[in-house]
Design a protein that fits this description.
By secondary structure, the chain is of the alpha/beta class. The chain is built from eight helices and ten strands. The protein has one domain: Alpha-Beta Horseshoe (Leucine-rich repeat, LRR (right-handed beta-alpha superhelix)).
């Protein structure tokens, strides 16, 4: 199924549907913010679905604010090679990932971040899973927004596990302008007062006074 979107004066777009619908974006340069939720993929990890998502997102490359569902990111896994076809979001300053279930954020996000050179705000449902994926390679290809513009990070489901602390350490090490970190603890962490205090102490040891949990 194909659907053409031709709206030269459109300012906001919200799309929630099956990823195998091929959207043909036309004249969407005026869109300022967009929310994309493409789920219900069958069969899983279909190449055609990944190509459809790339086509839709590339047509929205002028947006300043973009929200993506975790299911949308999963359309690219393990078809990450299709991300090479994704346009660069030169105007994007605010990127959010949302999920109906608390979970880690797909490692695909790191590939998308390399397409957002001016990103200032990043909101994610959980830490990025397997963000290193070969540490030397990862450290040599850190998204440029980490070094130039990213100044705010928000994590919504934080369990206080060691790999999550390591992710924060990685972000603080590589994001030169990251001055505002907000961490929302999971219900599991909130219910464990001893672990919550321990996590707070670990975060204090990381150094950032603006890191709030």
């Amino acid at each position: 199924m194909k659907l053409q979107i031709d709206a030269v004066n459109l300012l906001s777009l919200s799309c929630r549907c099956n990823p195998t619908i091929e959207f043909i974006p036309v004249n969407l340069t005026s869109v300022v913010d967009a929310s994309i939720d493409l789920g219900g993929l069958f069969p899983p990890y279909d190449l055609y679905a990944a190509q459809c998502v790339v086509e839709l997102l590339s047509g929205l490359s002028n947006v300043k604010s973009l929200k993506l569902s975790a299911a949308t990111l999963q359309c690219f896994y393990p078809r990450k090679d299709t991300l090479n076809l994704l346009s660069t979001f030169y105007n994007l300053t605010h990127l959010g990932v949302f999920s109906s279930h608390p979970e880690n954020t797909s490692e695909v996000l790191m590939d998308i971040l390399r397409k957002t050179p001016k990103l200032e705000v990043l909101e994610i449902p959980g830490v990025v899973h397997n963000y290193l994926g070969g540490e030397d390679l990862m450290l040599n290809s850190v998204p440029c927004c980490f070094k130039s513009s990213l100044n705010r990070l928000c994590i919504f489901n934080f369990y206080g596990d060691e790999y999550e602390i390591k992710f924060l350490t990685f972000m603080l090490k590589n994001c030169q302008y990251l001055g505002d970190i907000k961490i929302h603890s999971s219900r599991h962490l909130t219910a464990d007062a001893e672990k919550l205090d321990d996590v707070r102490n670990q975060l204090e040891d990381l150094g950032p006074e603006s890191c709030v949990i």
